């Protein structure tokens, strides 16, 4: 049963919404997966979706699946571009990957209005401003 399954704890893996660049009219945001481990992640799969209330109505975005492949240790990789229009929603990223044949998975959630200028900090490995979720040592 469930109690018999190993507890595969995800550590040193983060998801960040990063300000990639901006013009006077628009900011370009990219979602990154950051592997702060010293080992490679294999067969990385990320699904993303947004949901919540906008203008008094319940809204859901399309669920997208991104097969990333392998991610070397101490590197980052782009998952997807993200539009500021969905920052008022809950943005969820479900990550699955393998290390040495063992599967790991974790859900990362950016709460509504959490991706704002006041919450920006320098994202490790990417070295750009963004909002980071996950455990970085």
Tell me the Rg in angstroms. Answer: 16 Å
Instruction: State the separation between the terminal residues, measured CA to CA.
Output: 33 Å
CATH class: Mainly Beta
Widest sheet, order of strands: 6-2-1-10-9
Number of strand elements: 10
> Which structural class best describes the helix and strand composition?
mainly beta
Give the low-pLDDT segments: none
CATH 4th-level superfamily: Immunoglobulins
Task: Write down the CATH topology.
Answer: Immunoglobulin-like
Mean pLDDT score, rounded?
Answer: 93
> How many H/I helical runs?
0
Percent range for β-strand residues = over 45%
User: What is the number of independent domains?
Assistant: 1
Q: CATH architecture, please?
A: Sandwich
Note the run of SSEs as H and E: EEEEEEEEEE
Biggest sheet descriptor: 5 strands, antiparallel
Helix content: under 10%
Task: Identify the overall geometry.
Answer: globular
What does this structure look like?
The protein is built from no helices and 10 strands. By secondary structure, it is mainly beta. It has a single domain (2-114), classed as Immunoglobulins (Immunoglobulin-like), CATH 2.60.40.10. The protein has a 5-stranded antiparallel β-sheet with strand order 6-2-1-10-9, with no helix packed on it. Strand 9 and strand 10 (128-134) form a beta hairpin. The protein starts with 12 loop residues before the first strand and ends with a strand. 25% of the residues are buried.
